[in-house]
Amino acid sequence: MMNRTTRIAVIGRRYQSTVVAKNGNGNGKPRQSRSAPTIIESKQPEEPSLGESAHFKHTSEEALATPGIKFSDGHGLKGPTGRGRQTRRMNLYQAIRDALGTALATNPKAFVFGEDVQTGVFRCTTGLVDEFGTQKRVFNTPLTEQGIAGFGIGLASVGACAIAEIQFGDYIFPAFDQLVNEAAKQRYASGGAYPLPGGSLTIRAPIGSVGHGGLYHSQSPEGYFLGAAGLKVVIPRSPIQAKGLLLAAIRDPNPVLVFEPKILLVVEEVPVDDYTLPLGHAETVKEGSDLTVVSYGTPLHTSLRAIDLICNPPPQLVSFLPNALKPPNPAPSIQLIDLRTISPMPIIELVESVKKTGRMVIVHEAGKSGSVGNDIAGEVGRRAFEYLEAPIGLVSGWDTPVPLTFEKFYQPDVIRVFDKLVETLSY
Amino acid sequence: MRVDEKLTLLLQITGPPPNVPPKHHTTTTSTPLPTPTPLPIFPTADEKGRPLYVSGSQAERMARAGRMSSPLRRGTHESWWSSEMGWFNAVAKTIPTYRVLDEEGHLVRGSQTPEISQDEALAMYRTMTLIPIVDNVLYQSQRQGRISFYMQCAGEEAAIVGSSAAMLAGDEMFGQYRESAALIHRGFTLDSLMAQCFGNVEDKGTKGRMMPVHYSAPELGFHTITSPLATQMPQAAGAAYALKLDEERQGDCVICYFGDGAASEGDFHAALGMNSVLGGPCIWFCRNNGFAISTPIIDQYAGDGIASRGPAYGLDTIRVDGNDALAVLSAVREARRRAVEGKKGVLVEAMTYRVGHHSTSDDSSMYRPIEEVKEWSVVDNPIHRFRAFLASKKWWSEEDEKKLLAKNKSDVMRAFGRAEKLPKPKLGEMFNDVWGVGKGEEVPGVIMEQRAELGRLLKKYGDVWEPWRRERKRFVEEGEDVMDCDGRGS
């Protein structure tokens, strides 16, 4: 690990070399229309893309050390052969496809279905039909989300393992009635009799914005399901998490919504064997003692980058840090927690962390009103009031629809999180 | 009434008074129920001894209508008793497809050419040839990352333009998302279209908020396109009902476009059900183009297409060759006449083929052979068919074709170049129109606080944080418009 000063120096060097390369290339004036908006050449290094986040596991050892990982064959990290477990590089959709394939192979009563699953819009289901289609367990449905959800409840009712896909989280609302009034309440209403033993329902849907989805391809609808006790809501942050949490969701007897962030370019080493990660538990991604940051899905990586900017501030941001946070003073110690399960919320784990750090910032992409963040802030505020040294911060999308052209200023981006972290730390 | 009589009555109605201990706590057997009065014997024969119910034709049944019992005359439709166990899965054995022109553009034997003037025909042809160029340019520009998304209407030009040409200026139009040609035919300018696709400062319809092709043009009666499917359908039923009751809008009509996939949504059934019961002039125009993204119609429905569902809701229904502009024009004209005169819904199913990919996010070669697509665009090309008709009327020549294509191309390129150079709207547009604000009212605090928070952050980091510095340059006023206030958010 290099210290802060060398890091800045390295960044400086990188910048210089880019400029040299660009100048060397120039033969004449840049062609630019007069009325075109002027884009001034970048003077700073590019912000790292999501895929470059330091958090992702790039070696088998790191991947296998994932906390809470439980291999379904019961042999632990050494595997049935005693020679260890294998991992393979996978992006998020490959990891999901791997989990679906595992679920279909291990349970003859498992079904994967939804709109266009035979081809797969995000390719999470591509090829599954060739492997399992002859048994009619992977199939296209007519285009009806309420139908898909209700169909899945019916399958589960008689003991099947239904894994349904809603093509975009934005299109889950026709299924809202089936999910909230039927799936969530079925066990309670039937005195625990339904679904019949072995029956389970999992609904997968991609959520979140990627910068060009606009109103109907960017929403984060998890907040709408907070009040639906009986449903579980899970949001993984990475390929390893996606596979483990999805398999756990599929094997959970409760109806589980798995909302997948659209971070398809991120690649990790993912264990190839059948494993699960625990539902209902948050995970501490980074330990710390001065501030608790809670996030889930894509914004978790944004938060990680913002923490990095505070601990290793680039020259242009140093002036925004109060003296106590500036080098050469030691960098603050910030704990980052991945919530993972939105409902039922692992609130006690968050409260324990805040009791230790005294400060909390929540980061998510959904708007503020009726959000997961407000729920957490309310609970933590009630339970850890006397431990808090600053108001609980919430960085979220604005309470507007997700606007296409403005998405970069809508998303809770790195600098907004940075600002809130500094504000909370220096309160 | 004597007091004890009253008491007995009261006991019969409400049970014993509260001070009397309940009997079932003390008695081991429950009180026997009173013997019910026997039901009257249902007559099975008339007074002359003839059986009351016999099978027979509907005519015979009508003759006996006075003696029918009620269950067979529910609602507006009637049935008759039958001793045969007669199952069925279709109302008509086959639903024919109406066409005027054959694949080569010749009039089909026995067909009647709809009344169409040279000007009308040429206007349709202009739109039909303009849209492929628009599509091509915008599709390619998405591929180069200059716009974020696009959807073409390749292959469906006749269905979309033919139906639009049959509508009048005061009509309301609810699109799904592949109807830009209908909008252009109603007078939407290329500049407006490009402005929406680029989300630039001239995008009056959606102010840069919506993805490309989500047009909105109230001045043309074109309701905002949203991505969820079939949601426009119950809305169209509501609009049609409003037209039915609005004395000033008698004679206006609604047209609602939807696809074979959207017809599987619950909203489709809700819409047709409500429209059939409540009435209101509405043309339900189904573009049956064979695919819902990658799902072929064989995975979408097992009945006889969408047209077979019209009679289920009591709607006048027709299936039409969607690649035959003349057939679509005359069918929708007649549909419009029926809808307006009867103040009711009419269903038109246009059979066509989606030659292009679903959208720029789709690669249709993954699920259908390219040969199939080629065959459709060569053997049954809606533009070629209509052009052959124009030529047979001596309304069109090679020379005209060359001139038109050149003009179309230059028009499109000019509008494209212009739209691309325009900046994005004011950044503050992100926060406008979330709630409507009446005169003398203020924008809700939740929005103003968040706008002010962004303003504060932009003032602080707008020049030093590179991703923001670069991004804000794309907007008119470079975000200065939200920097008029300072806020900490809520």
From TrEMBL, chain A:
Biological processes, Gene Ontology terms: branched-chain amino acid catabolic process; generation of precursor metabolites and energy; response to nutrient
MF GO annotations: branched-chain 2-oxo acid dehydrogenase activity
Transketolase-like pyrimidine-binding domain residues: 90-267
Catalytic activity line of the entry: N(6)-[(R)-lipoyl]-L-lysyl-[protein] + 3-methyl-2-oxobutanoate + H(+) = N(6)-[(R)-S(8)-2-methylpropanoyldihydrolipoyl]-L-lysyl-[protein] + CO2
Enzyme class per UniProt: oxidoreductase
Endpoints of the signal sequence: none
Enzyme Commission designation: 1.2.4.4
Annotated keywords: Oxidoreductase
InterPro entries, alphabetized: THDP-binding, Transketo_C/PFOR_II, Transketolase-like_Pyr-bd, Transketolase_C
Record's protein name: 3-methyl-2-oxobutanoate dehydrogenase (2-methylpropanoyl-transferring)
Organism of derivation: Kwoniella shandongensis
From TrEMBL, chain B:
SUPFAM superfamilies associated with the record: Thiamin diphosphate-binding fold (THDP-binding)
Keyword Iron in record: no
Cofactor dependency: thiamine diphosphate
Catalytic activity: N(6)-[(R)-lipoyl]-L-lysyl-[protein] + 3-methyl-2-oxobutanoate + H(+) = N(6)-[(R)-S(8)-2-methylpropanoyldihydrolipoyl]-L-lysyl-[protein] + CO2
Positions of the Dehydrogenase E1 component domain: 125-426
Family: Belongs to the BCKDHA family.
Designated name of the protein: 2-oxoisovalerate dehydrogenase subunit alpha
